[in-house]
């Protein structure tokens, strides 16, 4: 997978808390979800927001594996061009959750079947745990 | 990273959910209402289609959306985001969601991004309920840690050519740090284009109340008295109901609403009030907001009935001067409130009050020439049930020249100051701050210091417009093969629909929003 675009978008995360930027971003994003930067305390996870679950985020770190990150692990979370952020290992508000969901690669959600096929496509049997 | 767009995008974002017809039906949509002869809708902007199998098709040059098929030159990506080929035709029943991401500008200078959404069954009910009834930017201030709804701005500026300047009275005061802080939110499924925000600092006598008039002037009103007599069209004496701002609210008598027809759909109040001695001008003071009839008119008749075609109407028809004028003339001649005075044996039109929006109560005053004699007779005429009125009074008035306080800073939801957003909002120019649903920021002003005890009232002047997001269920339930054409037929259709749904709409509204004055 070409992950250059999400990584490039990460550069914009800190600045884009209000409003949206130019439409070229839409085209650049292609089929991918929003770029995300998660502070997990001892480590940091940067990558693409794949999907949103009730208890956490499904992420694809650069060069990594499809990973599930519980909200309880996320000390800080920022997302490119998304009106939501995560703080203090707390889940997002319903409105922020919706914003994250619609900015993910799969805004329609991951059904069990779709999740299995996604994992298989990345050579995984199960979601990787957060580092 | 710039947050602003130069000049407004002219095409609204489209976001729809095609994968959840069950959810749409469960929300009361009749499948037989889908117009079988509906023609295709052409989206000229980059569009992404999320397929039920997890793949994605990106149409960088737009796509033709038919009832059964999406046609266009698209690039297909597999689950991993790898490009797998081209697509020309895509059955709509394979599509989970479609988003049209970008808009072109009428200047060609830039392109704005509208973030995606999937509007429909996947959203939490509470969020959707707010979205149903939200409209335009909402302004809050803080009162002991509790947000107080102050205003909704440029409520009916639904396209760039309807960009308007609004002036709203605030209850917010100066904080201990010398700042006036306002929380500006986008709580609706809309894209807001904010051009200008400034604070107006009006100094006045302690016994005066400062109110904006429909033209944005600032009036200091005093010696207000309830009207001696207020009779509505149904013959009810509603003066006591309107005597003070107490939550007891005038609304059109159900009999008047039931009788509304294509030839006569108005209600009115006839008012007799005392003229303050010696006054040559008086202020008609009102505390009011719109009912949700306007929401029904906008959502069900103007946009919903046309489904995806409404994108064209908003983005193309209303982008032309002729189209905007046609709608503007019709809307202003029907909606809002027309004020007439009894002169020379007949009702003479003297003023018009534009719609205020259905969310925040608006305190306003209308300056009127005082008649000879000590009594004033007025008629307030409006489409049946378009208004909720809490207070009506008449008083003495004078115009005040407020101090204009520019925006000092803009702070994002993350607490970080944003100088680009500030630059976009400081002046009414070609630079706009664009916000999408769920976004908020704090606008901070530094008003001049005043001696203790000085009576002052702040007002917020705002300028901008917004564009509605076209809901997925509107696409599915489109009932009209054409876009909205302003007419009384459409208005009466909205009234009939309003009669059917108002109870439910208002209950949901009351249960999902906290009304604060």
Gist of the model:
The complex is a heterodimer of chains A (131) and B (517). With 131 residues, chain A is of the alpha+beta class.
Secondary structure: elements and pairs:
The complex is a heterodimer of chains A (131) and B (517).
Chain A: H1 4-10, H2 24-29, E1 35-39, E2 44-52, E3 56-61, E4 67-70, E5 76-79, E6 86-87, H3 94-103, H4 112-121, E7 128-129
Parallel strand pairs in A: 4-7
Antiparallel strand pairs in A: 1-2, 1-5, 2-3, 3-4, 5-6
Chain B: E1 4-6, E2 14-17, H1 21-26, E3 41-43, E4 47-51, E5 56-59, E6 63-65, E7 69-77, E8 83-91, E9 95-100, E10 102-103, E11 112-113, H2 125-133, E12 138-143, E13 146-152, E14 164-169, E15 180-185, E16 190-203, E17 209-212, E18 218-226, E19 229-232, H3 239-242, H4 254-259, E20 266-274, E21 281-290, H5 293-303, H6 309-315, H7 321-334, E22 337-343, E23 346-353, E24 362-369, E25 375-383, E26 387-400, E27 403-412, H8 419-425, E28 431-435, E29 440-445, E30 456-468, H9 472-476, H10 488-512
Antiparallel strand pairs in B: 1-28, 2-9, 3-6, 4-5, 4-9, 5-7, 6-7, 7-8, 10-11, 12-13, 12-15, 14-30, 15-29, 16-27, 16-28, 16-30, 17-18, 18-26, 19-20, 20-25, 21-24, 21-26, 22-23, 22-25, 27-29
Helix pairs in contact in B: 2-10, 5-10
């Amino acid at each position: 997978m070409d992950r250059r675009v999400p990584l490039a978008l990460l550069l914009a995360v800190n600045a884009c808390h209000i409003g949206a930027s130019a439409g070229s971003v839409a085209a650049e994003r292609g089929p991918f979800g929003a770029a995300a930067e998660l502070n997990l305390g001892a480590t940091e996870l940067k990558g693409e927001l794949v999907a949103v679950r009730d208890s956490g985020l499904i992420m694809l770190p650069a060069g990594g594996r499809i990973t599930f990150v519980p909200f309880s692990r996320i000390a800080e979370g920022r997302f490119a061009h998304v009106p939501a952020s995560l703080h203090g290992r707390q889940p997002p508000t319903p409105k922020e959750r919706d914003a994250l969901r619609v900015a993910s690669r799969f805004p329609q959600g991951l059904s069990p079947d779709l999740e299995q096929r996604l994992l298989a496509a990345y050579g995984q049997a199960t979601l990787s745990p957060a580092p | 990273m710039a947050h602003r767009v130069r000049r407004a995008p002219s095409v609204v974002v489209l976001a729809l959910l095609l994968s959840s017809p069950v959810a749409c039906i469960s929300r009361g949509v009749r499948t037989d209402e889908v117009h079988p002869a509906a023609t295709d809708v052409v989206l000229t902007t980059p569009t992404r289609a999320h397929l039920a199998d997890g793949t994605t098709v990106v149409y960088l040059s737009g796509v033709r959306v038919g009832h059964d098929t999406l046609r266009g030159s698209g690039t297909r990506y597999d689950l991993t985001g790898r490009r797998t080929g081209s697509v020309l035709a895509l059955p709509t029943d394979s599509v989970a969601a479609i988003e049209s991401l970008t808009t072109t500008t009428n200047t060609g200078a830039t392109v704005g991004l509208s973030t995606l959404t999937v509007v429909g069954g996947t959203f939490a009910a509470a969020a959707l309920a707010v979205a149903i009834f939200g409209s335009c930017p909402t302004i809050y201030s803080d009162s002991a840690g509790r947000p107080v709804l102050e205003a909704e701005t440029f409520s009916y500026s639904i396209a760039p050519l309807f960009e308007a300047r609004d002036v709203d009275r605030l209850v917010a005061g100066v904080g201990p740090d010398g700042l006036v802080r306002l929380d500006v939110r986008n709580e609706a499924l809309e894209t807001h284009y904010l051009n200008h925000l400034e604070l107006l600092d009006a100094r006045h006598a302690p016994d005066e109340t400062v109110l904006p008039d429909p033209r944005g002037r600032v009036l200091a009103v005093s010696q207000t008295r309830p009207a001696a007599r207020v009779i509505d069209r149904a013959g009810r004496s509603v003066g006591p109901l309107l005597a003070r701002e107490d939550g007891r609210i005038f609304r059109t008598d159900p009999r008047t609403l039931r009788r509304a027809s294509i030839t006569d759909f108005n209600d009115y109040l006839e008012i007799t009030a005392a003229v303050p001695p010696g006054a040559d001008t008086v202020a008609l003071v009102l505390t009011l907001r719109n009912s949700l009839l306007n929401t029904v008119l906008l959502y069900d008749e103007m946009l919903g009935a046309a489904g995806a075609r409404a994108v064209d109407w908003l983005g193309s028809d209303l982008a032309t001067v002729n189209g905007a004028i046609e709608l503007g003339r019709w809307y202003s001649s029907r909606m809002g409130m027309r004020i007439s005075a009894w002169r020379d044996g007949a009702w003479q039109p003297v003023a018009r009050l534009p719609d205020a929006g259905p969310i925040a109560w608006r305190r306003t005053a209308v300056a009127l020439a005082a008649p000879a004699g000590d009594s004033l007779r007025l008629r307030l005429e409006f489409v049946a049930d378009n208004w909720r009125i809490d207070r009506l009074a008449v008083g003495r008035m004078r115009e005040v020249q407020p101090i204009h306080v520019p925006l000092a800073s803009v702070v994002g939801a993350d607490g970080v100051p944003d100088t680009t957003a500030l630059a976009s909002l400081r002046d009414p120019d070609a630079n706009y701050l664009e916000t999408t649903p769920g976004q908020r920021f704090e606008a901070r002003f530094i008003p001049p210091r005043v001696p203790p005890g000085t009576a002052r009232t702040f007002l917020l002047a705002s300028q901008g417009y917004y564009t509605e997001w076209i809901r997925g269920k509107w696409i599915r339930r489109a009932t009209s093969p054409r876009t909205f054409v302003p007419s009384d037929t459409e208005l009466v259709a909205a009234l009939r629909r309003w009669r059917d749904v108002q109870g439910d709409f208002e209950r949901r509204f009351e249960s999902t929003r906290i009304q604060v004055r």
